[in-house]
Write a structure and sequence with these properties.
mainly alpha; two-stranded antiparallel ribbon; 13 helices; 4 strands
Amino acid sequence: MLLKLSGKFLLFTALVLAGTQSYAQYADIPIYHADVQTQPGEPLPYTFFKHDSGYMHRNLVSSLRDMLVVNPNVSSLFHNHRTMQVQNNVALPRVFQPLINFSYRFMKANSRRDAEAANGVKHDHLSFQFVRASFCFGNDPFMVLAKIKRESAFNRTLVSSGQAVGFTQMTGPGIKEVQHQMSGNADLAMPGVKEYFRRAVACFTGNPAYHNFSGKTDDLKKAIRADWKLDIIYGQILLKVYTAYTIAATNKTRSLEDLNAAYAGSFIMYNGDMTEVNGRCTGVKGPMKIEYSCDIMQNFEQISNQWQFQVRTSRVNMT
């Protein structure tokens, strides 16, 4: 079954574009942010989609613990093996290999020519690590690939004009958000968040204390540029926080439509650019962050449909 998400995503985009700057359609349950508290039905301040840090909600941890995977076959694969998330430096079983091979082919076809040499890591190894990290952190691997295609075309050595770094082009505010979530400070993160991500880091690297997430932003950018595993970890944590927060803050279910909307919302939060642009993806004039989200979601739809076609025609075993 091919995923047909374009209409749903365009509807989501239209709702965002049509809303007021308060984005009131998102405020259906109480929000607990480091800078704001609201009651059900009360419009969210503009800060909900700003590049703030310290996103908090009473249901955040339960959303974090979920496998937030949209593609149905990959979701089944991840859920069927989720007990392996408790392993340190998890060794994925052979049933993951078709997904890894598919991810490798997508990387190879969509990376900059200089990416593999610049990264100093072969695409086949990175594709394995992207799938493994996505499994450990509970993110959709196709959303991860779609985002990286947009941000860096798989060349992690690129540095933007705004000094964003790495596969997912981590910004200063993004790094600050990861630091706050990993701080253990009750004023900045909900209880249990740090412990959850330490477990995910251990699943990926074998060491829950692989990185202490402290230091100045510029120093952390240097650390991310120097260590491809750390680069992946920061990107996985930030994506999971934003997506889980969007689910918790908007009372979304785990339906296909709601998960897609949650990821679209997380990409809007990640970008945060209010500059008006003529959107090639959305087809209308609106904030850059909406165009950015739309582009990534279209990338995801392409990847996911290609995978679904492969599963259907090759009878890939996803158990």
